[in-house]
Design goal:
Length: 389
Amino acid sequence: MGVDGIDASSVLINPQHAFAFGAALASGLLLLQYAHRRKHFILLWAAGWLLMVPTELLSAQRWASPMVERGATGLSQLLRLGTAVTFLWAAGVFRRTAFTLPGGVKAPLVAAAWFLVAPLVFGIAAVDTPGYALTALTYAGAGTMYAAVLLERRMIGAGLIAFVVLGLAISHVSAAVMARGAIAADQFAFETLVVDAVLYTLGMLGMHLLIFEDMTYELRLTNRRLETTREELLQAAITDPLTGCHNRRFLEQVMDRELQRHARFGLPLSLLFIDIDRFKAINDSLGHEAGDRVLQYVARFLKRHIREADFVFRYGGDEFLVLITCTGEEARRKGARLKVAFDAAPEAASLPPGLGLSVGTIEVPPDTTDLTPLIKSADRRMYEDKNAG
């Protein structure tokens, strides 16, 4: 015996009413998710689940009037199709693809009119089979879309939803076949309802999993963008914006590391201090734009003739500094070759006349801890080279 003398075993719960209650609960949970995530595909999912509530309640009701029963059947088929359409729409929104209904706005209006009017005129058969068939086709399209999300982003939730909606497509094909055969077996209807309930439950799990995976996916993308931005800021901080060469800040960063590396492996290290001849006269006579073009050309020239393992810095104004792995004698010969190559370069014909390079070189002693005095010495030698030229 139950409460107030009522036998609990005599209380029967209509499975379609239970299904409607579960759909309303699922819609409420998704609305809570939407309040947190503000994603439109979640709102569409919630709308789809909400449409299931009147669908099941209309199907569960036994109507006294045959005409009302026909109208209720047509409306329930229309709402069932609407659920499938919203799930398909949600997939399109999730993938950021343009979602358009076939035939534009006119086709849905015609379909709605058919499902509402046809059963009253032609009977239930006019909407049962078409309704199940269209719903199955729509679920098949949604399953394809969610399967595409699985392949594109490796999201398990999308795969689970794809499995569910494809299962629902098969279930609705079976229902369409049974309706076409005019078979109204209660046992078949109950078994179909149980299968659909299991599929929808799995679908709800897949939706919540996909929401979580979408959030983590966005976090990964955000982290990548932040990492890219950090790298860009780092490059901007250590690169001269005009010439693309390293700047003096980067020289300060790598100086200790390079000195230690060359000392550890016993590698020779030298400096080349390079200045552009007649650069001030070009700036004064032709303007800063011409001077900037000269600086950019010289930077490209040095990068082309200096190994990638070595460093080219814009030290200031028209001065460049090269940190190169070689002996002092090799550095001196390298400086001489650079001057000859610069004078003989075909591009030099398009540059203002009289341009050239002056180079001062010096070898870095093994026990050096600071390059600043050596840079000054290389600068003095550069002026000696300029005066000699």
